[in-house]
Each structure stands twice: as structure tokens, then as C-alpha cells.
């Protein structure tokens, strides 16, 4: 048995090799129900997305959240993204566009985190987004990282554009797809997608704004990879709204606020750059006629 690294203190992820040589992973989380994540994996598999199958699930009060699931270990290896080799993975980018198109073709009721019935927990998409920012903004303001004016501008952005956000479709989105959640074979073909603990019912663009964007403000990976993924997404039937850029900015602000909170909590030197990014993106949205 061996532990897997996790950044959530309320999670346990343990790998094991069974007597017959099969390798499995047990996961339990106080952040999201293990039963809900197991069901989300089944939804993704039914949509054609390559994911490890759920082998078993159950309850144990000693584990975070009291629920666990057992899955097959992901095949292949995590998609490594050293900066000089980013452009050499066109096959992976093409496969990821197809993965997103398959996920986003899965329409579900409600919005926000999925329950064990495969439904979103919120009636409105904007309610989920605003509530998800309440604690990060409070934490960043109390710690002196975001001033009151910046916090108010972020809150006003999501309140004033709630009708536009609520008009977006509700589909299955991974919500946290980074290169360590993408497993590839020797030919860089995607063979497994893992970690659906942050999956939600929401706007497809939410996935693109979170794609490989869990780092500092100057992380070059997303800008280098996303165009290829988008081209493949469109080729596989993924729909792109005319106000893609404007929606992307809004979700990029959402992501940057949460990354800033994370960086402070784990003592990473990202908060200054992410704060400046939020400020700049707010200026862009203020100057955009379609968002007034």
C-alpha cells in the first residue's frame, strides 16, 4: 500500500497492489461525498470518457466523510508538461478536446456539486459561483491580501451578471482538470481521466477556464495548450458561444480568487500575482460592452 499526495486535509487517497497483481486506489473525502464521486465516474464512463471503473464503495466512520470508493488505478502515466515540450503533445490536446466534448454532451438537472443522484445541488448556476467565493474572499480580505474595494468588485461582478450566467447550459464538467489528472500512454494518447471530486453541473466554459490553471498567474501551460484543445473540441461538436472571451474572463477571476486562497493556505508565493490578475481581469470586464 502507498499514500497518494492530496492537498485537501480532509481527504485520504491510498493505492494498493492486490495479491493477483492488480493495482487499485481507495479514496475518501470530507470535501465531497465518496458516493457522489463514484456516481459521477459512472456518468462520465457512460458518456464515453476514459475513466477508471468503480470496483466497490461503502461506509466507514473512521474515514473522512464516512464514505469510500475503490477504483482501478489509472493506466499510463500523468501527462508531463515541461515547458519546452508543450507543443510536442498535439495528440493529447486532440484527445482532450474529444474528452471535453463527451463530458459536455451529458446534460444534467440543477447546477453545482453533484449529489448521489447525479443532480446539481443548486437551482441557479450563479448561486453556486457566488457561494463558492464567499469564504475565499473573506479569508483573503481578513488576511490583508485583498482590500475591501477588490472584494466588492468581485462580488458585484457575479451579482450583476447573474442572469447571463444562469442562462448558460448545465452539463457535466470536470472542474479541476490539470496535467496530473490526465493519464497518457507512450504515444501521448489519453487513456484515463481521474479525480472528479470537484465535478459540477455547470457551464462548459468553466472547464476551459480551470484547465491546467491551478498555479500562479504567470503559468504558461494553459495559454500554450488551450488553443489546440479548443480546435479539437469544436471538431468533435463542442459548442462555443459568441461571448466566449467575456465568460472566460469571469471564470478566470473565479479561479484566480480560489487559487489565491490556496496559495496563502499552503504558503506558496502566488498571491500577489493572482491579486493583480484579478484586478486586471475586472478592468477588462468593465471595458467590455457586452458585459455592461
Automatic annotation (TrEMBL):
Q: What Gene Ontology molecular-function terms does this entry list?
A: kinase activity
**What InterPro entries would the database entry show?**
AGP_Transferase (IPR051678), Aminoglycoside_PTrfase (IPR002575), Kinase-like_dom_sf (IPR011009)
Q: Does the keyword Repressor apply?
A: no
* Gene3D superfamilies recorded: 3.90.1200.10
Keywords (A to Z) from UniProt: Kinase, Transferase
Supply the PANTHER family for this chain. Answer: AMINOGLYCOSIDE PHOSPHOTRANSFERASE DOMAIN-CONTAINING PROTEIN (PTHR21310:SF15), AMINOGLYCOSIDE PHOSPHOTRANSFERASE-RELATED-RELATED (PTHR21310)
- Please report the name of this protein according to its UniProt entry: Aminoglycoside phosphotransferase (APT) family kinase protein
